[in-house]
Structure formats: C-alpha cells, structure tokens
Amino acid sequence: MGNAIRRIGVLTSGGDAPGMNAAIRAAARTCFHLGIECVGIRRGFNGLINGDDEVLNYSRVSGLTRMGGTMLYSARSAEFRTEAGIEKAVNTCKLLGLDGIVGIGGDGTFRGLHDLADHGIAVIGVPGTIDNDIACSSYTIGYDTACNTAVECIDKLQDTMQSHERCSVVEVMGHRAGHLALYVGLACGATAVLIPEKPVNFEEDVIEPIRRARLSGRTHFMIIVAEGVGSSYDVANKIKEATALDTRVTVLGHIQRGGAPSARDRVTATHMGYSAVMLLASGKTDRVVCMQDDKYIDYDITEALSMKKGLDEDKYTVMRTMIGQHNKV
Ligand SMILES: Nc1ncnc2c1ncn2[C@@H]1O[C@H](COP(=O)(O)OP(=O)(O)O)[C@@H](O)[C@H]1O
Ligand SMILES: O=P(O)(O)OC[C@H]1O[C@](O)(COP(=O)(O)O)[C@@H](O)[C@@H]1O
Ligand SMILES: [Mg+2]
C-alpha cells in the first residue's frame, strides 16, 4: 500500500458545511501516517485552475476538528466546467505532482471530480453538505450541526411568537431536498412542515393543522418551509389571508452553514477523511466515501450520482401523525 501515491491534494468545494475542517485534518493526518505529502488546494476547483495551494503540515491542521467553515475556502467554479478550465486544473495536478485528489463537497463536486478522473487524475469524494442530499450516503458531513443550529434558532423564535400569539413561517435550506426541513420540523414540534418531495394541499396541510392547534388551545404556530418549496413569504401571506393571524417570516439562511461542528459531524468527517486517503493509497479512484447502516463504504462516483435519495417516509409519517394529519402515500 502507498507505493504509487506520494502526494495528495485536498480541496473543499460547493457550499461549506460544519465538519469540513475535521475532514481536511483527518485526510492530512492519514497522509502523514502513510508517509504521503498532503497539499491543500484553496478555493475549490478554482484552486486547481489557478495553482492556489499550500502544503499542509502537522501543525497547520492542528486544532481544526472543532472549527466551522473550511480553512481551505470554498467556491463554486464556473470555469472548471469548461474544457479549458479542466485542462488548466489537470496541468496544475501535473505541475504539483499530485497523485490523487480528495474532494469534500456535494453532488456538483463529485461531478467535477469524475471529470478529473476522466482526465487520468485519481480522485475520491467525501460527502460534505448540510442538505444531506447525497443518495449513496445516509449521512453527509454538516447535516447534524445544521439541524441543531436551525432548532436552536427556532426555539428562540417560538418564545417571541408565543408572547405575541403569532404564526411564524421559517424557511430552512436544503436546496431541492426536504431532509433538513423535515428533521428540524420534527425536532421543534412544528404545526406544519412543507417539503418539495410532497405536493402541498394548502388548506389540508397548513390551514387545518393551524385550526386544530388553535382549537386545542394553542395561540402561536410554527410553520417550517423547505427552500425548495418556493417563497416562504407567499406561504405567510396565504396563512394571513386564510386565518387573519399575525404572521412573521424568518429565512434562516447561511447561519445554518456556520458554527462549530457537532460531535457527530466531527467524528463522521474524521472517519470519512481517513477513508478517502486510505482508498487513494490502496489504488482506488473515481469513488465516493459513503455511510450506510453506520458503516463506511465506497461507491463508484457515476453509480453514486445516478442514485436517487428518497425522503425518509417513516419520519414523514411520524411528522404527519404529530400534526394530526391523515398520512399521504
Ligand atoms: N456537472 C458538473 N460537471 C463538472 N463540474 C461540476 C458540475 N457541477 C458542478 N461542478 C463543479 O463543482 C462545484 C461545486 O458544485 P455545486 O453544485 O456548486 O456544490 P456541491 O458540490 O456542494 O453540490 C461547481 O462550482 C463546479 O465547479
Ligand atoms: O451559498 P449559496 O451559493 O448561497 O448557496 C445556497 C445553497 O447552498 C446550500 O446551503 C448547500 O448546498 P451545497 O452543499 O450543495 O452547496 C443549499 O442548502 C442552498 O440552497
Ligand atoms: Mg449540491
């Protein structure tokens, strides 16, 4: 093991996620363990295009486990998606003598890594996104921390909504997926949760739950809207029209991406960073590290990207039961 691999590049790409730093540290420390040099590539794929790199030594990655954000910076690189951009990136890999790249990010990052693999660069992806929308992996780095952050914010909102007897409409991130919204909705005992995976019947799914809560004595309400559903302001206006409740919209936004990672994210990121380097060292390429049934495995990137992640239907059923809704099939 490890004969062919002398130097590995590590980058973070797409939306940042708490725990990315722990994954960088773990990849670097695993490299040191194997006698491999570790190079940080800054600013995602732009760093490969522009030769934006720094050698990661033992002390440079020290203390990173508990840090939010990514010390390598992240970016969404349009240039990398052009043939000229990828050629520049491949040339940088050759210039720096990189025998492999560990890319920490989401589905877009994995597509980019696969393009590099097509150009002969060994690559391994590590799922890091607060959206938890990577089909091959039951868990992505950052999700737990983002859920906890959202719940903490919503608990605070509940206090003021209670005092003023208002209806709060809170928009959470998740891109096109509702995993984050559903989990957060369950955790904070929402009155209703709207997610893109399920069609919304406004009267049945929002207004009736509010009425039932009101009839049981409640005078403030919490509606969670996944960003993929559409405008939370439209949702709030429709609630106001139908109920005359005083509504307030809060878009949680990028606060969900910040903060010190939870223990779960630190440990998952550490294990995934370790696995990624071990895979490269054993000669594997074009694969993504995944978690399934609490085990770390790996998938071919193309196969991984062709998989579709369904909603956790059990959680959806529990949520509907909690708000007194008949369960949809
Ligand atoms: N289809 C694609 N082919 C090649 N590279 C891609 C593709 N999609 C995204 N990328 C690269 O990966 C970067 C990150 O992807 P993005 O979708 O923004 O975030 P994430 O990886 O978190 O899903 C993009 O900025 C781009 O450089
Ligand atoms: O940071 P930006 O460019 O505003 O993007 C926001 C998007 O990034 C996310 O926060 C994370 O998505 P990715 O991890 O796939 O990049 C989404 O939830 C959100 O839709
Ligand atoms: Mg994505």
Descriptors for this entry?
11 helices, elongated, binds magnesium ion, 329 residues, alpha/beta, 17% strand, seven-stranded mixed beta sheet, Rossmann fold, binds adenosine-5'-diphosphate, single chain
Give the SSE layout:
Layout: E1 7-12, H1 20-34, E2 37-41, H2 44-50, E3 53-55, H3 83-96, E4 100-105, H4 107-118, E5 123-127, H5 143-164, E6 167-172, H6 179-187, E7 192-194, H7 202-215, E8 221-226, H8 232-243, E9 247-251, H9 263-281, E10 287-292, E11 295-300, H10 301-306, H11 313-322
Parallel strand pairs: 1-2, 1-4, 4-5, 5-10, 6-8, 6-9, 7-8
Antiparallel strand pairs: 2-3, 10-11
Helix pairs in contact: 1-9, 2-3, 5-6, 6-11
Describe this structure in words.
- This protein has 329 residues and is α/β, with parallel strands linked by helices.
- The protein is built from eleven helices and eleven strands.
- Strands 3-2-1-4-5-10-11 form a seven-stranded mixed sheet, sandwiched between helices.
- α5 packs across α6.
- The protein binds adenosine-5'-diphosphate, 1,6-di-O-phosphono-beta-D-fructofuranose (FBP) and magnesium ion.
- The site of adenosine-5'-diphosphate has 17 residues, from α4.
Short note summarizing the structure:
With 329 residues, the chain is α/β, with parallel strands linked by helices. Helix content is 43%, strand content 17%. It contains 11 helices and 11 strands.
Number of strands: 11
Main CATH class of the largest domain: Alpha Beta
CATH topology of the largest domain: Rossmann fold
The CATH architecture designation of the largest domain is 3-Layer(aba) Sandwich
Give the overall form.
elongated
Question: Could you state the order of secondary-structure elements as H and E?
Answer: EHEHEHEHEHEHEHEHEHEEHH
Radius of gyration: 22 Å
Give the low-pLDDT segments.
Answer: none
Number of domains: 2
Bound molecules: adenosine-5'-diphosphate, 1,6-di-O-phosphono-beta-D-fructofuranose, magnesium ion
Question: For the report, how would you describe the main beta sheet?
Answer: 7 strands, mixed
Helix fraction? 40-55%
Portion of residues in beta strands equals: 15-25%
